[in-house]
Write a structure and sequence with these properties.
The complex is a heterodimer of chains A (about 775) and B (about 110).
Chain A lengths: L1 H11 L2 H4 L8 H17 L9 E8 L4 E7 L1 H24 L6 H20 L3 H19 L6 H32 L4 H6 L1 H6 L3 H15 L8 H5 L4 H10 L4 H13 L3 H24 L3 H22 L2 H32 L15 H15 L7 H14 L7 H33 L17 H19 L2 H15 L16 H18 L1 H10 L6 H23 L4 H22 L15 H19 L3 H21 L3 H22 L12 H27 L7 H12 L4 H9 L1 H23 L8
Antiparallel strand pairs in A: 1-2
Chain B lengths: L1 H19 L4 H22 L20 H32 L4 H4 L6
Helix pairs in contact in B: 1-2, 2-3
The chains are: A mainly alpha (about 775), B mainly alpha (about 110).
Subcellular location (chain B): Cell membrane
Family (chain B): Belongs to the CPA3 antiporters (TC 2.A.63) subunit C family.
Membrane topology (chain B): Multi-pass membrane protein
Chain lengths: ~775, ~110
């Protein structure tokens, strides 16, 4: 199974090579094979006798992070959607994208997305799922920004990435919480331990984080704002990522985790209310749109809301309707996006106000659009799959269980009305989409191109999808037992197989459907009168503005903050770095209880040492207060020689010798440069700067003392020095242990040290000798 | 005595840092010198002070001072000599080229 997931990514490596011959053979024909093979590989699992399959490949077993692929009914549904729609989209893109486009990049992104999306739906390991999840966001970003020379494309790409990755990170936090609670990284393992999760105090937090991830990905209100802007992507991408697959990842996540959370009442409340609000808001907004793809985008938002609501209900009917609608939505919405792409391609515009009367030019496209839109509207005809799932949706809204919570009961009361309300607008925009484009006045002179029917290859994909709409519409039970029942079962374990029938008798859901159609027709016919009403809400106020304001505010403030400390003064940087080190280390020392002072086992104090220490201290302070450069250099020499004396006292003859030599050379060097350096000036800073510098310096010095004392006072490890003392003679063949360590045991180190000195010498030489070549400038 | 040496190391580092934060190049160079002295003493306190003989092996003596900090310090002395002399010359050259040794005048804060 891992091969099936990774093959698109592997193949993507060859795409740049293949795309070299794009003018002879369109790259899409090569790519087409990949999703089709994956589709064939997975289609064989469809059948009534299907049982889940698991495949594990180790990645980081010590952290519990493995490629743990788990294929159950739900994953199978998604895998087939991803590979099936993927095949059709690639085929469609062959005719949609001209060979003058950067095809190599397009297909690399698309294949990357395919792997990512397959990974999301197949991973049983939450962290692997997260990695694939973010990969879908990234590939979506790249695909939306494919025409990167458009300002709107870049804006849409950035917006979608910011929102979905924000959600992804939040979901990651939720996963970490669940892993901490259950001690496992496997989703199935979590489902087995759902009682522990439901008892945990972190439950609301974990649920909130995960739902935030799902809602942002699936464009739920108020995070839906990225989806309409994502329509800047090439239409095949919109059809694939932003309607059929990626936006359904959020639904998948909710469905995956609903066995865990469904026992928790707030799961029902939050998911259902967000879903139902999104349904109403999306379909309401869709009616106002004039761009064909914008209509479809808001329509997708509303349909996603509807599925989300059903997953929230969690009853047997609702869950079945949800998985059924995921399939149906992919078929009719995918075909409608392709139809919109065809119209755009053949007429040069997507503005519904300019279009009209296209049925006589594009009869096949019109037929496809008719079936697609009517299926979306839920028109009660026995050969449209949209009607079945919509009616199941109505049925599920009527059979909700009352709970203990007042909010739940309120929701249960109003949900059926909201469902009908949202569906009325769905009906209106679906009908508008078809009749607005294909019937009415022809205004050919307004169109950039003369319309004609699309090439056969371009029509092929939508035809296949619409055939799916009709086949499922005519024989809904064809996909039911072998396929959907398994998917529903993995969401709601208590699910039992049920026949789908067109005619149930005169029931309440049918009545609701008829109300929708009735009011919808009236609203559509009188639509010009309602324009003013549609404009009233949301008026000037929209979530896009909120997004823009947030983004601008962050921009301004981060600019201000950055400018406040990145002022070009190296001294300020130094003070900030040291000050931060001081604070962080001190806090860490105190928190971990690292400060210890141990008065035992100390060497005794002698007058000689004390006087040397005093001399060094005075000399060190003197460097600060001296305003004479000669004095300052000599005082620094005093410090150096003082340290050398200390080395003598502490039985380090080699150190003392080296220090004496080096110190002498250093002072000599200082004196050489002395002549050329300006005289020291009085320190003329303000008291404030002085005190800041002083406190940073004193704080840092005190911290180092504290660390030295603590390190000396605690004894965590045995010293390794004995090893050197014992083996110096036998291994190194020398009696001076320090020399043996430097030359033998750490010989390479010393070699590099010499190298460093050599480089420094070269640098010094060239700094002195190199003269700026005035004429070269 | 170890505590006193630790404090001395702290004092050297504090004065070094203070000099480092000054405007004049020469003071900064002096600061780095002080800083390395402080660091050497800091490493020295990690071993035990004044225990036993210098680490030069002789018969009949089993008690030596810790050779490891000494080896590290020896490396460090040489390296810090290299660093100090390099930045000293760098400071000289900078002051010569730019006709100033004031860090505030040397800063480049144009953004692009």
């Amino acid at each position: 199974m891992i091969f099936a997931v990774l093959i698109p990514l592997l193949f993507a490596c060859f795409v740049p090579i293949i795309s070299k011959i794009k003018h002879k053979v369109h790259t899409g024909f090569f790519v087409f094979v990949i999703p089709f093979m994956i589709f064939l590989y997975f289609i064989r699992f469809v059948g009534t006798g299907f049982s889940p399959i698991r495949d594990t490949y180790n990645w980081i077993p010590s952290l519990g992070i493995n490629f743990d692929f788990y294929l159950d009914g739900l994953s199978l549904l998604f895998v087939l959607l991803i590979s099936g729609i993927g095949t059709l989209v690639v085929l469609y893109s062959v005719y949609y994208l001209d060979t003058s486009e950067r095809l190599g990049q397009f297909y690399v992104y698309l294949l990357m997305f395919m792997t990512a999306m397959l990974g999301v739906v197949l991973s049983d390991n939450v962290f692997v799922l997260y990695v694939f999840w973010e990969l879908t966001s990234i590939s979506s970003f790249l695909l939306i920004g494919y025409w990167h020379f458009n300002e709107r494309s870049r804006y849409g790409a950035l917006k979608s990435m910011l929102i979905t990755i924000f959600g992804g990170l939040s979901m990651f936090a939720g996963f970490i919480l669940l892993t901490v609670i259950t001690g496992t990284t496997s989703i199935q393992g979590m489902i087995e331990q759902k009682d522990i999760i439901l008892d945990s105090t972190y439950l609301p937090l974990a649920l909130g984080f995960i739902l935030l991830g799902a809602f942002t990905k699936s464009a739920q209100f108020p995070f839906h704002i990225w989806l309409p802007d994502a329509m800047e992507a090439p239409t095949p991408v919109s059809a694939y990522l932003h309607s059929a697959t990626m936006v359904k990842a959020g639904l998948f996540l909710v469905a995956r985790f609903s066995p865990v959370f469904s026992g928790y009442e707030w799961f029902f409340i939050v998911v259902s209310s967000f879903g139902i609000v999104t349904l109403c808001w999306g379909s309401y907004m869709a009616v106002r749109q004039t761009d064909l793809k914008a209509i479809l985008a808001f329509s997708t938002i509303s349909q996603l809301g509807m599925i989300m609501a059903m997953l929230g209900f969690g009853t047997k009917v609702a869950v079945f309707a949800a998985v059924f609608h995921i399939l149906n939505h992919a078929t009719f919405k995918g075909s409608l996006f392709m139809v919109a792409g065809i119209i755009d391609h053949e007429t040069g515009t997507r503005d519904i106000r300019k279009l009209g009367g296209l049925i006589s030019f594009m009869p096949i496209t019109a037929t496809l659009a008719l079936l697609g839109t009517f299926s979306m509207a839920g028109v009660p005809l026995p050969f449209l799959n949209g009607f079945y799932s919509k009616e199941l949706f109505f049925e599920s809204t009527l059979n909700l269980n009352e709970g203990m919570n007042g909010v739940t009961n309120f929701l249960v009361q109003i949900v059926p009305y909201l469902a009908v309300f949202g569906s009325i607008f769905t009906f209106v925009y679906s009908v508008y989409f078809f009749f607005g484009v294909f019937t009415g006045k022809k205004n050919l002179d307004k169109l950039p191109k003369k319309p004609h029917e699309a090439p056969v290859g371009m029509l092929l994909s939508p035809i296949v999808l619409v055939l799916g709409v009709i086949t499922i519409g005519l024989f809904p039970n064809l996909v039911n037992g072998s396929f959907l029942a398994h998917a529903a079962q993995s969401v709601n374990h208590a699910f039992e197989y049920k026949n789908i029938q067109f005619w149930h008798g005169f029931t309440t859901p049918l009545l609701m459907s008829l109300i929708v159609v009735g009011i919808g027709v009236i609203l559509y016919l009188t639509r010009t009168k309602w324009d003013a009403v549609y404009r009233l809400l949301p008026g000037n106020w929209s979530f896009n503005k909120v997004y823009n304001v947030i983004l601008q505010t962050i921009d301004t403030y981060s600019n201000k903050v950055t400018n406040a400390y990145m002022n070009g003064s190296v001294r300020t940087y130094m003070a900030i770095i040291l000050g931060t080190t001081f604070i962080v280390t001190l806090v860490f020392l105190l928190v971990t209880d690292g400060v210890t002072i141990n008065y035992d086992n100390l060497a005794d104090i002698t007058i000689l040492e004390i006087s040397v220490v005093l001399i060094i201290t005075i000399a060190a302070l003197g460097t600060i207060f001296s305003n004479n450069k000669l004095a300052a250099i000599l005082i620094l020499g005093v410090v150096g020689y003082g340290v050398a004396i200390l080395f003598v006292i502490y039985r380090a003859p080699d150190l003392a010798l080296t220090q004496l030599v080096i110190e002498t050379v250093t002072v000599a060097l200082f004196l050489l440069c002395f002549y050329h350096l300006p005289q020291l000036r009085k320190r003329t800073e303000s008291i404030r700067t002085k005190s800041i510098n002083a406190s940073v310096a004193i704080g840092f010095g005190a911290l180092m003392s504290l660390i030295a004392i603590s390190a000396h006072s605690s004894n965590w490890f045995d010293t390794i020095s004995d090893y050197f003392l014992e083996t110096a003679l036998s291994i190194g063949g020398g009696t001076n242990v320090v020399n043996v360590i430097l030359v033998d045991m750490r010989g390479l180190d010393t070699l590099f040290e010499i190298t460093v000195l050599g480089i420094a010498a070269l640098a010094i030489y060239s700094l002195i000798k190199l003269k700026k070549n005035e004429e070269a400038d | 005595m170890e505590i006193i040496i630790s404090i001395l190391a702290g004092i050297l580092i504090a004065t070094g840092v203070y000099n480092l934060l000054q405007k004049q190049l020469l003071r900064i160079v002096i600061g780095t010198g002080l800083l390395s002295h402080g660091a050497h003493l800091f490493i020295l306190t990690m071993g035990k002070l004044k225990r036993g003989q210098p680490p030069v092996l002789e018969d009949n003596i089993t008690n030596y001072t810790d050779p490891l900090p000494q080896a590290l310090i020896l490396t460090s002395i040489v390296i810090s000599f290299g660093v100090t002399s390099l930045i000293l010359v760098l400071a000289y050259r900078t002051a010569n080229e730019n006709k100033t040794d004031n860090m505030e005048q040397l800063r480049g804060n144009e953004n692009e």
